[in-house]
Design goal:
single chain, 407 residues, mainly beta, Porin, 16-stranded antiparallel β-barrel, 20 strands, 54% strand, globular
Length: 407
């Protein structure tokens, strides 16, 4: 991860707006669309996406996507995204997805096919569209499920590989299955830093294998939605010459359960995660270790009419389910081989969020949120390089504004 900051390529927005109407390619259109959003964050203590204790505009997202179907059974899709988010992301454009989609089967009973290339990872309800502000259930996603501040955001959004999908139409419901296989690749710098808990390791952390499976059930046109997602990730650290780390393994297994109920004016949504994280071999003097992360959120959203809505969310996370108060992990951080001492609240994070949104037009959306936070486990370390021995403030507040435009 570097400290470089580059100017956000706003010319992409201009080009995309000029080209946002369908372009005709023979008898099938080439569609170009996109989004742009700008946020402002202010916190009482602990920085979040920039120097938020002084007020930060370091949350900017923009993207341009294209879609073309040269044949009824074949389509091509790609999206480039630029994201500026504090010290974690400097606005460099990246390929969010770029894949070939081939539909093998299509009938009155359902359809199925596969995607090849860089594909989105279906996790829970929001992972596939989390880059688009207008599709999220708030400015900041529930961090217990959709972790963003620890450098592993891109790791869980998309992957190079093969994805297969199928959907079956039942009497009053649908059943959807998504399966993904990742190809081996070297992980990005910020992801390596998050896994290894250091930015100075000279070697490479590689994804050696990855699988993802999601089963999604919808009844009565989405009135009830249920989903289960299982992800299996295997990583290996390959040390460089004269490395202070040895060859190590860091496998992660995660199970996410999701449920949503929708009525005319009110929606209730809840998701829970159980992660098993292990580390072995990195440092000879440190024994192999494993832990079980857990978290969940529940959110109620009320639609007020005239494009207005309001929501209340409770979101909670524990780094280790057997040490929810963080005392044992805090004591372990005092050991000589530990990178730095950490206060107990560095190992959990619980927060209440009250938010509102106003969809001015189908394209424009304004949002405001207030977060009351206890703990700092999911607070971006990159934005807080001088966390003192107490690990920042245990209780703090965060206020966020965002304007987003889709085209």
């Amino acid at each position: 991860m570097t400290g470089r900051r580059k100017v956000v390529p706003w010319f992409i927005v201009f080009v995309a707006m000029v080209c946002s109407w369908p372009l005709q390619a023979a008898d099938r259109p080439l569609n170009i669309h996109g989004f742009v959003s700008q946020g402002y964050l202010s916190s009482t203590d602990n920085n979040y996406y920039g120097d938020s204790t002084q007020g930060s505009f370091d949350l900017t997202e923009l993207g341009v996507n294209v879609f073309h179907a040269p044949m009824p059974s074949l389509s091509l899709a790609a999206q480039v995204v630029s994201r500026r988010a504090g010290a974690l992301y400097d606005g460099d454009p990246r390929v969010d997805y770029a894949f070939l989609d081939y539909r093998l089967l299509s009938s009155l009973d359902g359809y199925g096919g596969f995607r090849l290339g860089r594909v989105k990872i279906p996790i829970g309800f929001h992972n596939e569209t989390r880059d688009v502000a207008a599709t999220r259930p708030g400015i900041l996603l529930p961090q217990s499920i959709y972790v963003e501040g620890l450098g592993i955001r891109d790791f869980y959004i998309g992957v190079d590989g093969l994805a297969a999908y199928g959907e079956w139409f039942l009497a009053r419901s649908t059943l959807q299955l998504d399966v993904g296989l990742a190809v081996p690749t070297t992980l990005q710098d910020e992801t390596q830093a998050a896994f290894l808990r250091t930015v100075s390791a000279p070697g490479d952390l590689r994804l050696t294998s990855g699988q993802n499976l999601r089963l999604l059930y919808e009844q009565d046109g989405g009135r009830l939605r249920l989903a289960a997602t299982y992800s299996r990730v295997r990583t290996e650290y390959r040390p460089a010459a004269q490395d202070f780390l040895l060859r190590g393994l860091a496998p992660v297994d995660a199970l996410v359960l999701s449920a949503e109920w929708n009525w005319e004016d009110f929606s209730l949504m809840a998701e829970a995660v159980h992660r098993r994280i292990r580390r072995s071999g990195f440092i000879p003097s440190v024994p192999d270790a494993g832990r079980y992360e857990q978290g969940y959120y529940i959110q109620g959203t009320y639609r007020l009419g005239n494009g207005w809505e309001a929501f209340l969310r409770y979101d909670t996370h524990w780094n280790d389910r057997t040490d929810r108060a963080g005392h044992r992990q805090s004591m372990e951080s005092l050991a000589p081989e530990s990178l730095a001492p950490q206060a107990p609240h560095r190992f959990y994070q619980h927060q209440w969020t009250l938010g509102t949104g106003w969809r001015i037009t189908p394209q424009w959306l304004l949002r405001a949120e207030w977060h009351h936070v206890h703990g700092t486990a999911l607070t971006p370390l990159a934005d807080n390089p001088v966390f003192d021995e107490a690990g920042g403030k245990a209780r703090w507040d965060l206020f966020a504004l965002q304007a987003s435009f889709t085209f």
